[in-house]
Every structure is written in structure tokens, then in C-alpha cells.
Write a structure and sequence with these properties.
37% of the residues lie in helices and 29% in strands. It has a five-stranded mixed β-sheet with strand order 1-4-5-6-7, with helices on both faces. The protein has a two-stranded antiparallel sheet with strand order 2-3. α3 links the parallel β5 and β6. α1 packs across α2.
Length: 124
């Protein structure tokens, strides 16, 4: 059986998100959860970049508007944060596009908008 990519790191991130959801509950704006994540990442010594900028190219030209990842953690995982009533295929497709643009192989799509935290591992 193949080993999960960044298994321990992803487990730690999901644990942080569960604690945030338990404390703040559902229904806040995405930015509120991102602010809480930043606090917990600092306290947990999880290396991260918030709103990391990635360029998007088309026909070998850099497009005017870059993509900003909600978080890049451990220099090797994208976190896409949502506060929606439910995750959709469009959220998954968006996250896959972000992986393609960034060159990163793993993303966690995390939704704080439901009664319980919902998360999904997405691998390019």
C-alpha cells in the first residue's frame, strides 16, 4: 500500500482546523478562519505563508492577475479555505487548478461552513 503524501503534516493541519471549528463554530467569513489559523500555526510552529502569490501563464506569457493561495504550509502543501454550506465539485476543480499553477502536489480543501469540519485531500 502506498504511503500518503505528507501524512503527518496533513494530520496536524486538520487537527488545528478541527480545534478552530470547535471553538468558533460555523458561519463566519473565510477570513476569520484564516486569521485563527495563522495564530494557531504560529503557536504550533507550523511553517506557513499566507496569501502566497503564484503567477499564471498562458501561451508562454504571464497573465496580469496572479493566483494567491490561502496558505502554503511546510513549503509543500496548499490549503484552500472555504466557509460554504457544502463543498462542491467546483471547489475541487478550483483547488486542482491551483495545484497545477503552483506546481505543488498536495492540497487540503477545508470547509468551516458546515456543522462539522469537512476536509478533502486533493493530489495532482
Amino acid at each position: 500500500m502506498a504511503e500518503l503524501l505528507l501524512k503527518e503534516e496533513a494530520y496536524k493541519i486538520v487537527g488545528v482546523c478541527m480545534q478552530i471549528h470547535k471553538t468558533l463554530g460555523m458561519g463566519l467569513k473565510e477570513v476569520n478562519y484564516k486569521d485563527a489559523m495563522e495564530i494557531d500555526f504560529l503557536e504550533s510552529n507550523i511553517p506557513f505563508e499566507r496569501e502566497k502569490k503564484f503567477t499564471v501563464t498562458y501561451k508562454n506569457q504571464i497573465l496580469r492577475n496572479p493566483y494567491y493561495a490561502d496558505f502554503v504550509v511546510y513549503d509543500s502543501m496548499i490549503l484552500e479555505i472555504k466557509s460554504a454550506s457544502m463543498l462542491t465539485e467546483a471547489h475541487t476543480a478550483q483547488t486542482l487548478s491551483y495545484l497545477a499553477v503552483s506546481g505543488i502536489k498536495l492540497a487540503l480543501l477545508i470547509n468551516f461552513g458546515e456543522r462539522s469540519l469537512v476536509w478533502k485531500r486533493i493530489i495532482l
